[in-house]
Amino acid sequence: MVVSDEPGIYREGKYGFRAENLLLVAEKMKSESGLFLGFETLTLCYFDTNLIERSLLDEEEISWLNSYHRMVFERLSVFLTEVERRWLRGKTKEI
Hints:
Layout: E1 2-5, E2 8-11, E3 15-18, E4 21-31, E5 34-41, H1 59-77, H2 82-91
Antiparallel strand pairs: 1-4, 2-3, 4-5
């Protein structure tokens, strides 16, 4: 199953922001308690960090974003030219 994760905020008459990802529901592990499901990210697009106020994020959120950006770069960079890789590296750098 594929689901979307769409956190966002909208201020009527002012602005709105939504960061959407598609996720695959997949088997993650089995234990004596049964089968556990989790998510695998399908969307491979960087988040524009110019729109992110870093001071409002906690360390777990910063770590998640940096890890996500590393994954985006690692998975996509093999298909890009050197110029495109440099561009993507800049877009996926750690915050």
